[in-house]
Amino acid sequence: MTSAEWVEYLMGSGTELTILQMSVRAGCIFFLALAMLRTAGRRSLGKHSAFDTCVVVLLGAVLSRAVVGASPFVPTVGASLVIVLLHRLLGLASIRWEGIERLINGEERRLVENGKIDWTAMRKALLTRTDLDEALRQEAGATDLSQVKEVILERDGKVTVLLNKAEP
């Protein structure tokens, strides 16, 4: 069997797909969507991780096809099951292996330390000084960086502000 025939066998074409073909497609799309969401950055995710957002978006898209009859019901459910199982397996793997956990959920970024902005971290996080000032006001009621010990962009996109301790 040639490579083109294998692709056709595994992925299918048209609207008449087997449960295997829809499941393989779901697995491929899961990883592609996860990679695209991680590449897009935290600003596009709000309070959810790319890992969780990927599952929600894909399940909504795949399951909607069964609801409107655009795809056969059983293969659509099979594809959805693959998405859920991948989510569960990768979640379990991330508990066991730190590298997988870091790949799936990312790492926090220290944006400010002892009142000094780390502009490299700000650029990587796609945050502006205006975004930082807004977070300082909203999260800590601070308006001056001299009041700030640390600002951390958490893995879920939330900004944590730690103020210097007030002296007695």
Could you spell the SSE succession in H and E letters?
A: HHHHHEEHHEE
Q: Which class do the helix and strand fractions yield?
A: alpha+beta
Strand content: 5-15%
Helical residue percent band: 55-70%
Integer average pLDDT: 83
Q: What is the approximate shape?
A: elongated
- Any low-confidence stretches, pLDDT <50, length ≥5? none
CA radius of gyration is 22 Å
List the SSEs and their pairings.
Blueprint: H1 3-11, H2 19-40, H3 50-68, H4 73-96, H5 98-105, E1 109-113, E2 116-117, H6 119-124, H7 129-140, E3 148-153, E4 159-163
Antiparallel strand pairs: 1-2, 1-3, 3-4
Helix pairs in contact: 2-3, 2-4, 3-4, 4-5
Structural commentary:
By secondary structure, this protein is of the alpha+beta class. The chain has two domains: 3-105, no CATH class; 109-163, bsu07140 like domains (CRO Repressor). The chain is built from seven helices and four strands. The protein has helices at 3-11, 19-40, 50-68, 73-96, 98-105, 119-124, 129-140; strands spanning 109-113, 116-117, 148-153, 159-163. Helix 2 crosses helix 4 (73-96), helix 3 packs antiparallel against helix 4 and helix 4 crosses helix 5. The radius of gyration is 22 Å and the shape is elongated.
